[in-house]
Amino acid sequence: MKERPILMNAAMVRAILAGNKTQTRRIAKPVRHPDLGNIYAPGALVLEREPQHVIERACPYGRPGDRLWVRETWAYNPDHPGMAWHACYRADPGHEHDGIKWKPSIHMPRAACRIKLEIASIRIERLQDISEEDAKAEGAWPDESIVAKTADYFQRDALAVHPSLAFQMLWEGFNGRASWRANPWVWVVEFRRITQWPDT
User: What is the per-residue pLDDT across 17-35, written as a single tens digit (0 to 9) for each?
Assistant: First the structure.
């Protein structure tokens, strides 16, 4: 079992804490074959046709059973009780006007991490192949505010909004409007949150 950090923005963190997010999609970049050593570019009809065990071993985020610790925007606050490193987190409510000097998620040390995940499965697919159930697992549903924002974003009636459309809006918000049309290959990492994880 290996342990790796993974970056999550505030919306993702809130969805995980609420129990609504159990998947994450990350753009797939060329990776090295775990046995042969040659470089595989997703979409070249090579990596995605490999056996599942090769795909899992090639994934930069880990294999099933490996663990991820979430890096999020945070700050050191000596007056904040009960949290590791006296940390507070921007994803939590109540920090809008308190003048906290936030630190980027990339700079979060493991000791300040509050969210640990265990990888359940790995696969690679096209971004637009996401199913409605997987869009829900991405945390894009069933938040009523997301429905209203999605309807406004696409200029549609709220009754025409569905989970994958909400996910498209969130994806474009993070990666730019052209990113959905590009339909990149993505790593799909399915995970479960774990609460018992001894410090190392």
Answer: 999 999 999 999 888 877 7
Residue 131's nearest CA partner among 10, 14, 23, 9 is 23
| pTM for the whole structure | 0.87
| Widest distance between CA atoms in the chain | 54
Alpha carbons 20 and 22: distance in angstroms, whole number: 7
